[in-house]
Amino acid sequence: MTKSIVVLGAGMVGTCTALHLALRGHAVTLVDRREPGRETSYGNAGLIQREAVEPYAFPRQLGTLARVALKRGADVNYHFGALAGLARPLARYWAHSQPRRHALLSQAFARLIEHSTLEHAPLIEQAGAGDLVKRDGYHFVFRSSVSMQQAADKARALEQSHGLRHTTLDPDALAAAEPALRTRLAGAIHWHDTWAVSDPGALVARYADLFEKVGGTLAKGDAASLNPTASGWQVRTENGAISAEHAVVALGPWSDTLLRQLGYRFPLFVKRGYHRHYRGGEPPRLAMYDVDRGLVLAPMRQGVRITTGAEFAQLDARPTPVQLDRAWALARELVDLPEPVEPEPWLGARPCTADMLPVIGPAPRHRGLWFNLGHAHQGFTLGPVSGRLMAEMIEGQTPVVDPKPYAPARFG
Ligand SMILES: Cc1cc2nc3c(=O)[nH]c(=O)nc-3n(C[C@H](O)[C@H](O)[C@H](O)COP(=O)(O)OP(=O)(O)OC[C@H]3O[C@@H](n4cnc5c(N)ncnc54)[C@H](O)[C@@H]3O)c2cc1C
Q1: Are 71 and 294 in contact (CB under 8 A)?
Q2: Which residues neighbour 96 within 8 Å (Cβ) at sequence distance 6 or greater?
Q3: What is the pTM of this model?
Q4: Where are the beta strands (DSSP E) in 76-193?
Q5: Ligand 1 within 6 A of CB of 55
Q6: How far, in Å, is the centroid of ligand 1 from the Cα of 288?
Q7: Is the pLDDT of residue 309 over 80?
Q8: How far apart (Å, rounded) are the C-alpha atoms in residues 302 and 310?
Q9: Distance separating alpha carbons of residues 189 and 292, to the nearest angstrom
Q10: Quick check: CB of 378 below 6 Å from ligand 1?
Q11: Alpha-carbon torsion 304, 305, 306, 309, what sign?
Q12: At what angle do helices 12-23 and 200-213 cross, to 10 degrees?
């Protein structure tokens, strides 16, 4: 039976949710205050991370913690004034990062990641977006031979447990694979199953075009106007008020504002991140993650995109792109990147949960309300499988992945 559904938020997660529902013949309106794919899903590193079977844990090694506290790397920064407000979700994040607990959570996370490229593939095909996607993997590069060795051991274990294909490169093999490198590194791991997108926002826009082609409606509106009605939900848009039996909240880092308005206090927080494009030198052939310094260099349409790690701050606090300055200096040790493309860096925010698992499922206390949010470091990767899961749950079908670990009810 055809259902009417309004999806709030047209990032990768909301767009894929709306698309999966529209492909199943439902009457779907996708509401955003901007064009699809212009926020977090625009500014990420563009990696469809099939290798990311373990969610990003709170660092627990003393060396990393000292670097964080002293604000030395490009991986972590924090606003001192924001820490008190973040203390509760961060304390829970720390607790969930305890190795045994993290290993359990990783099993649930991996079940989604296993479907990441599998679920992107048909959407890329139907959206005619193959020109945006390179399917030849990416490199973890290492400056220190100790961290290289640890990562090689870990990669071997992951290949055994999850079938993740990889090749370990010694310094000479890495230099041959990446002629743009200006320095001799300790080596690299080439993850073969990860895909790289040359314009992440454009991929979301192509999925949104496909959504319209199969009968979906795009509307501009403010999700804060969502209200329950006798038969479902209503939201105000530029096309007038839209009423639907079901509403899906997929507002990425802004989800918490609406959830609080509805009476939910979930342990959500954001990790902000910056990027900027650079030109002028030879770009790397594949995207590379500089593991020892915490930055990513991703060749994109606009230039080489450097992305930073996490900044713990309030979502709407002013930008403090010190990590990007550090990241650019560190990146220039690796490849020649003399010219910034944009006058100012881009700032976005990863939507995080304290237990590192996304929130996908029915709202505990509202009929016809659904949540699809909190995808943290891997929302660009997980949009299609999360969207499918949500569509199958709304239809009352058996979902492709057991949804229990992602249930909103775990947070009350
Ligand atoms: C620097 C950086 C690098 C990253 N690299 C990767 C990567 O390589 N691979 C990967 O998988 N993930 C990566 N991520 C994470 C990934 O980008 C996010 O997890 C993902 O984009 C979240 O998607 P989303 O659809 O939930 O949120 P968003 O893309 O932010 O979408 C939310 C939408 O809600 C809309 N919205 C908000 N408030 C309202 C309102 N009141 N009314 C109407 N609309 C509203 C916004 O306009 C937006 O379009 C990275 C993130 C960062 C910051």
Answers
A1: no
A2: 58, 102, 105, 354, 355, 356
A3: 0.97
A4: 76-78, 133-134, 138-142, 166-169, 187-191
A5: no
A6: 21
A7: yes
A8: 23
A9: 13
A10: yes
A11: negative
A12: 20
201 lines ligand 1 (CB under 6 A): no
Q: Is ligand 1 within 6 A of the CB of residue 222?
A: yes
7 token code pair: 């999806």
Tell me the pairing of strands 47-48 and 195-197. Answer: antiparallel
Top pLDDT among 198 and 66 is at: 198
Distance 387 CA to ligand 1 centre (A): 14
Tokens of 171: 């310094």
| 32 touches ligand 1 (CB under 6 Å) | yes
DSSP 3-state of 305: strand
pLDDT in tens, 35-62: 999 999 999 999 999 999 999 998 877 6
Longest dimension (CA), the chain: 68
Q: Where are the beta strands (DSSP E) in 238-364?
A: 240-244, 246-249, 268-279, 288-290, 295-300, 303-307, 310-312, 339-340, 346-353, 359-362
DSSP letter string over 51-91?
T--S--PPP-SHHHHHHHHTT-SSSEEE-GGGHHHHHHHHH
Quick one: tokens of 115? 């479907």
Helix, strand or coil, per DSSP, at residue 166: strand
Q: pLDDT tens-digit profile of 222-263?
A: 999 999 999 999 999 999 999 999 999 999 999 999 999 999
- Is 311 strand, coil or helix? strand
pLDDT in tens, 163-212: 999 999 999 999 999 999 999 999 999 999 999 999 999 999 999 999 99
pLDDT digits (tens, 9 = 90+) for 283-299: 999 999 999 999 999 99
- Nearest CA to 168 among 188, 143, 184, 151? 188
Q: Ligand 1 pocket test: which of 19, 30, 44 has the largest number of ligand atoms within 8 Å of its C-beta?
A: 44
Q: Which domains does the chain have, with CATH numbers?
A: 1-57+97-131+194-266+354-412 (3.50.50.60)
Backbone angles phi, psi at 278, to 5 degrees: -135, 145
Residue burial 50-61, b: 16+ Cβ < 10 Å; e: rest: bbbbbbbbbbee
Between 379-395 and 12-23, two packed helices, what is the crossing angle to 10 degrees? 40
Q: Give yes or no for residue 350 CB within 6 A of ligand 1.
A: yes
Q: Is the separation of the CB atoms in 307 and 45 below 8 Å?
A: yes
Could you count the other beta carbons within 10 Å of the beta carbon of residue 219? 17
Which tokens belong to 102?
Answer: 């993290």
